[in-house]
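Quick check before the chapter quiz. The format below is the same one you will see on the exam, so make sure you can read both the input and the output lines.
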Amino acid sequence: MINDDGIVFRPAVEKDAGTLVAMHDSAARWMKSAGIDQWKVGDKDKAHFRERMRDGEVWLAADEDRRPVGAYELWWSDEDAWGVQPPVAGYVHRLMVDRATAPAGAGRRLLEHAERRIAWTGRERARLDCVSTNPRLLAYYQGAGYRVVGEFPSKQGKDGRVYGVILLEKRLDRLTVV
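Here is the expected output.
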């Protein structure tokens, strides 16, 4: 566990899958209420998060009272959006905060934790994507130091839906550690 000024980070374990599903669905409901067409309630189930734990990393953030405040997935490749790439980056997915419990700035702190984790492995870049129809999220990531490096106009979701994503990247300081 890593304590970062009141937020405790730890790798998620199988028993956290239900918490992650609830957090994802809550974030999806918030997006819908804010007019953002991105995540859908029920899109990610316990099996999804367990698979991500096996194939990559899922990090859970909690407050000092151990209440979950956020989570993210960290992948070591993302061929669906980025194609085959040399192993120089980590890919941040499903960055989510619990709006009921997360302190102000929690999303940025989760993103910074992901960046430190990627740098700790010796990789020099953090990468992520966001749907091209979400200008607020694009601005958020650009405000965090990410730059647009491309667009993939026809990413296909597991439900068959085709949508565009903007590809973003941030160069990391190799001396940053988790």
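If your answer matched, good. Residues 17-33 form the longest helix (17 residues).
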